[in-house]
Structure formats: C-alpha cells, structure tokens
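Lab manual, section 2.4: Encoding a predicted structure.

Procedure: take the sequence of the chain (164 residues), apply the prediction step described in section 2.3, and record the output as structure tokens. A sample record is shown.
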Amino acid sequence: MEQQYLELIELMDKVNEMVQRLVILAQEKKRLVIQGQVKQLDSLIREEGIVISELEKWEGARFRAQKQLGPDLADCKAQYLQQQVARQCPHLKAVFQESLSRLETSLGALSSLNQHNNELLQQSLDHIALLEAAIVGDQPGTYSQKGLQAEESRTRINLLDRKV
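Recorded output:
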C-alpha cells in the first residue's frame, strides 16, 4: 500500500509541475495581451495546448493510481484521501499533505491568472468593436414586426465621412 501512495504522490507532483508550467504560460500570456503581440500570443497558445495535453496524460495516470487504492477512493474528495493516507500510512501524511497543498496553491494561481487574462481579452475585444463601430459606423440593430431591419431614426456618426 505504501508503494501505491508513493506513486500517487509522485503523480500529483507531475500534475503540479504541469499546472506550474501553465501558470508561467498564463503570466506570459498576460504580458503579450497587454503589449498586443498577437503572433507571439498565437505561438504561446499552441504551446499551452501541448502542456494541457501533457497535463491530461498525468491527471489520467493519477486518477488510475488513485482508483487502484480502492473503489471508495476512485472519485473521492482530497480531504477524504488525506484521511486514508494518515490512517494507512501515517509516515506519508506530511509528504502527501505538502504535495496536495502545492497543487491547490498552483491551481488557485492558475485560476486567478486565467480569470484576469479573460478580462483582458474581453477588454481588447470591446475596444476592437468600438474601433470598428467608429470606422464603419454602427449598424442599426432593431428589427420591425415583419422581421426587416428598421431604419435608423438618427444618423450615426462615421469618422471616415466626417468633414473638418
């Protein structure tokens, strides 16, 4: 049983390693979005896909190792798994807890960075939509009862048509 728990801890560390790589990529993504470096961002997104594939591989191996510990541990919460480690292999409790804590910290950092990056991307998309509306003019978005686009009651400003 001890060997199985050691294998599980090792696999959790591999998963954490992949999550840490994603954290580094998310930090780089944030920098690239802010600087508007689209080509580098595209390359980074491809690299991120490779890391995610690796993460899925290690997470699958971790799940299988956890399942081999017993049917009740296959899909349990981390707290229950911690209790089982403490009960069955008390000398591994601290090592398991440390590995789990690192993984939780990494996942929290990744979640926070992903949320911030999503907000940055949304701001970029909003800005692009604003620029597009300023250049080509905003199109009416109201439809009549017959399903035809309603005529705009007021003239929209188009920056390219403005005479100075």
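Check your result against the sample. Residues 93-136 form the longest helix (44 residues).
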